[in-house]
């Protein structure tokens, strides 16, 4: 795969205003046992404008791993007091690389959202409006923050980066259509495909096209829309509704049906790339359960019993693992950069003090790393592992300043 051949890493941090002071509701004393070790590579202290922010650390789920840009991208950064701009860090040195203050560069700037996007070539993209949302513009920058192109007067678009360009998805309920427009590195339109209005793009790649109430076409990705991989007939069950879709890297698509009267008892139906049902199961109704796709595996978190269980694509149980405290998974595990690994964080009381324990496991249950970090009473850290470099990224708060730290896993 492309990401195995490239040399550097590209990390996206999505920032949003939030309070985390309610995170520590569980006062259970947690075990202090640690495994493995971390060696700090560099630490970058963010500008003081980053205040009272919570960070979600991980790779853009629309892309596997981007090493072309050689940047850590703060998404959005804070420049000149606004939080719509781009702020980047050199991944090798941990030093500031470049910034782009879009709010103060654009007259009548009207933000659509805070997200910047990037593609495999390291180009970055941002969508905004200058007429309060009647039409939208898309700006493209290179890895040094230099302007590449700008497309103006577009309809609102969902943005999906790919290789050296982006794909725009524009939906129109009146015309009952979704338009997928491919732009190359210069902003020129190279293709356009029209599907029905009801479409959904999974973070792991599949494009779902719903035809009526019971039929769904599944396409490989946003650049492969000429012919569906397979078509399935969606089932309806009394007391259930479709809660989500989980794609595994081998191609299996799992449809999750939730009960209307319970947090547990989900019904799962898994389909292969031939469109045929592979397996189905109903989970325990009395358990509070959440489901995560982790590359080629399916992870079921039983919050009621504080245990997680990993299954393969045929729903064969691989192992179970008990955890402590309040659990948080890396939300970007479903991108395939770390297939074969699971990462999560326990929050709680360690030796009488608030703290967190970051754990990295192989998908056979073996613990690679389990490290304790002390916390203040407000902020928790966010972690992300990159298997290509065997490094862990951590964003944390110290002395009222946010810091991004890169560690090498040592043993």
Helix and strand topology:
Blueprint: H1 2-5, E1 11-17, E2 38-45, E3 53-58, E4 71-79, E5 82-90, E6 96-100, H2 102-105, E7 110-111, E8 117-118, E9 124-129, E10 136-141, E11 147-154, E12 158-162, E13 165-172, E14 177-183, E15 189-195, E16 199-201, E17 207-211, E18 215-219, E19 230-233, E20 240-247, E21 253-259, E22 267-271, E23 277-282, E24 289-294, E25 297-302, E26 307-311, E27 317-322, E28 326-329, E29 341-350, E30 353-362, E31 367-374, E32 382-386, E33 391-398, E34 401-409
Parallel strand pairs: 1-4
Antiparallel strand pairs: 1-3, 2-34, 4-5, 5-6, 7-9, 8-9, 9-10, 10-11, 12-13, 13-14, 14-15, 16-17, 17-18, 18-19, 20-21, 21-22, 22-23, 24-25, 25-26, 26-27, 28-29, 29-30, 30-31, 32-33, 33-34
Verbal overview:
It is a single chain. The chain has 411 residues and is mostly beta strands. The chain has two helices and 34 strands. It has a five-stranded mixed β-sheet with strand order 3-1-4-5-6, with no helix packed on it. The longest helix has 4 residues, at 2-5. The chain is globular. The two termini are 26 Å apart. Residues 1-27, 52-66 and 332-337 have low confidence and may be disordered.
